[in-house]
Amino acid sequence: MMRSEDFSRVVQGWMAGCLAATAIISAFLLVGLATTSKGIVEFLVGAIFVSWVPVLVFVLTGGLTLIPAALVVWISERFRIQSILFFGVVGAAM
User: What is the C-alpha separation between 18 and 34, in angstroms, rounded?
Assistant: First the structure.
């Protein structure tokens, strides 16, 4: 049985993973925008135009990983798996 502290930690970890994925994708977007812009004004206008993308990426990442992450947590609790290798491989696969 999962305690409320464990549940809170699981949700925080899942949200941190979604945030990390959002940060990486957004950084690639900004670097791509910076390399294709002709100047600072064009870059700033483009950055303002795509400022909604991180929100969309965060929502999509969270929505697409919710059920698989819950399944992984259930499997790890059921079989008492605590290996960082297990969670790293499963996280990369998701």
Answer: 24
**C-alpha of 9 from chain center:** 16
Q: What is the pTM of this model?
A: 0.78
pLDDT tens column, 36-78: 999 999 999 999 999 999 999 999 999 999 999 999 989 998 9
Calculate the alpha carbon distances from 20 to 16, 17, 46, 78, 91 in Å. Answer: 6, 5, 23, 27, 12
Q: In the chain, where does DSSP find H-type helix?
A: 4-36, 40-49, 53-78, 84-93
